[in-house]
Amino acid sequence: MAKMAASMVDSGEDAFRKIFKFYRRRNPPPDLTGVTDFSGGEPGDRVSGNDVEASRVGLKPVREWRAFGLQGYPGFIFISNPFLRGCQAFWVRQCLKTYPQKPNICNLDMHMNPSETQDIWGQSAPTLRSRKPKTLLEKLRWVTLGYHYNWDSKTYSSSSHTPFPSDLHSLSSRVSAACGFPGFQSEAAILNFYRPDSCLGIHVDESELDHTRPLLSFSFGQSAIFLLGGRRRQDPPTAMYMHSGDVMVMSGQSRLLYHAVPCILPAAAGRSALEAEGPVPDPDPDPDRDLRDGALPEPVSQEDWTVCRRYIQTSRVNVTVRQVLEPGQSLPETRACSPQGTAAAAAADRRSEKRKRSSGSTDSVHTSHT
Ligand SMILES: O=C(O)CCC(=O)C(=O)O
Ligand SMILES: [Fe+2]
């Protein structure tokens, strides 16, 4: 891999783009022998934290987490699936059923009426259960939470904000505290929904105002190749697998590195442990409990799991959680648009979606951030 990157630099070409294209190629499929796989490696001593609090969000005791650094990338931490057996199912169900609901914003809002996107799960579940193609869920590409990222202006604004889900904040604050960042405020999230042919272009996440706080990434479903580059767009990246349940923390000097997802691995090669795992049966079927009670995340019904399993058999969901502001800081109000009334924004975004569609045949989950 390093050799390949070096030869590309020698030839004067943009190493990151070349390597992105290398992994994106279908025919012949790329040689994956140079891809770092943390799932088999020896972890370092990088995390510490409260085991009881971790279990409340479905995570193993922190001392059992397999956390890795990467040489040459200070501040980058890779945690190989720290979820308790059966607990990823809860987060997948939240990503597919709960977080796409209003008032959160998703790509479908850009070209559909709010009434049509009110119940993406309800409209999609019967069809997904019966194995017929193309539901709204399968057309979902992104959802934004908290401060809703504006894809056109590449900014956040105080006028486009809805409450951040408390369960996802609990998960994020446990992980960031374990990695040495107590007091993390989950203020924005982007959920990316990858179909088998999706990718995410080369970008850096710099729209947040506080870069001293880490960027957290949670992956579920099919595996993917993740490319982690340097401070310059053309710097050659390191390729690594991201499997279901893996968590990545980009902090310190790694917070503003270029990165990309060139491909989702075909199901045969990337059969997710999650699919085999399924949800754990509920030992305590009390419908009134929630995460605050100190219980494990609420179990997923077999009915819901059938839909989630069908979806993740071919798809990947990634959630990045960001702290946008320094404590005490506030955002400018750049554009008046209420979360439900995004019609004005939608018209502009419809134009940019059209541009995106006509710009190539690859299925990018969204336009790159930069
Ligand atoms: O899907 C991934 O692993 C990366 C997502 C990402 O980089 C982003 O949303 O900014
Ligand atoms: Fe990113």
From TrEMBL:
> Which keywords does the record carry?
Dioxygenase, DNA damage, DNA repair, Iron, Lyase, Metal-binding, Multifunctional enzyme, Nucleus, Oxidoreductase, RNA repair, Transcription, Transcription regulation, Translation regulation
GO biological process annotations for this chain's record? DNA repair; oxidative RNA demethylation; positive regulation of gene expression, epigenetic; regulation of translational initiation by tRNA modification; RNA repair
Instruction: State the protein's name.
Output: Nucleic acid dioxygenase ALKBH1
Indicate where this protein is primarily found.
nucleus
Cofactor comment text? Binds 1 Fe(2+) ion per subunit.
Cofactor dependency: Fe(2+)
One term under GO cellular component: cytoplasm
Task: Note whether Transmembrane helix occurs among the keywords.
Answer: no
Region Disordered, annotated ranges: 274-299, 326-370
Q: Which Gene3D superfamilies match?
A: Alpha-ketoglutarate-dependent dioxygenase AlkB-like
Spell out the Basic and acidic residues composition-biased ranges.
286-295
Which reactions appear under catalytic activity for this entry? Answer: 5-methylcytidine(34) in mitochondrial tRNA(Met) + 2 2-oxoglutarate + 2 O2 = 5-formylcytidine(34) in mitochondrial tRNA(Met) + 2 succinate + 2 CO2 + H2O; an N(6)-methyl-2'-deoxyadenosine in DNA + 2-oxoglutarate + O2 = a 2'-deoxyadenosine in DNA + formaldehyde + succinate + CO2; a methylated nucleobase within DNA + 2-oxoglutarate + O2 = a nucleobase within DNA + formaldehyde + succinate + CO2; an N(1)-methyladenosine in tRNA + 2-oxoglutarate + O2 = an adenosine in tRNA + formaldehyde + succinate + CO2
What PROSITE patterns is this protein classified in? FE2OG_OXY
Record bears the keyword Metal-binding: yes
Question: Which parts of the sequence bind Fe cation?
Answer: H203, D205, H259
